[in-house]
Design a protein that fits this description.
The protein is an alpha+beta fold and 111 residues long. The protein has a single domain, classed as Lipocalin (Beta Barrel). It is built from one helix and eight strands, in the order αββββββββ. The protein has an eight-stranded antiparallel β-sheet with strand order 3-2-1-8-7-6-5-4, with no helix packed on it.
Length: 111
């Protein structure tokens, strides 16, 4: 009897922890972020609450990034000036991570 109670409590605690992890996903608010693409040096990008994204002069993304938008419940898309999806980012700790669609390079967006 104690085993079944312990198992039920363990399952309950594990599933409540998963829900808390999703609830604590970092919000993409207006401000300056660091963008890292592949092995390139991180560069500054400015994000507005209206959905624009302006890379700094030293950003080497290979694409002219211009926009961001929410993707699903807890993800974000980075878009080119022509509206093509560059990368989809998901929460990973205190930052957002994903890969580029064109060449599968890792992308990290952090404060």
């Amino acid at each position: 009897m104690n085993k079944s109670r312990f198992l039920a409590l363990s399952v309950l605690l594990a599933t409540s922890g998963i829900g808390a992890a999703y609830a604590q996903a970092p919000a993409l608010a207006a401000g300056t972020y660091k963008l890292t693409v592949g092995s390139k040096t991180p560069c500054d990008v400015t994000i507005t609450s209206e959905g624009s994204l302006t890379p700094g002069a030293t950003c080497e993304t290979g694409v002219s990034l211009a926009k961001w938008q929410q993707s699903g419940a807890n993800g974000y898309q980075l878009l080119s000036g022509s509206g093509e999806t560059y990368a989809v980012l998901k929460p990973h700790g205190e930052q957002l991570e994903g890969i580029t669609f064109a060449d599968q390079r890792k992308v990290v967006l952090s404060h």
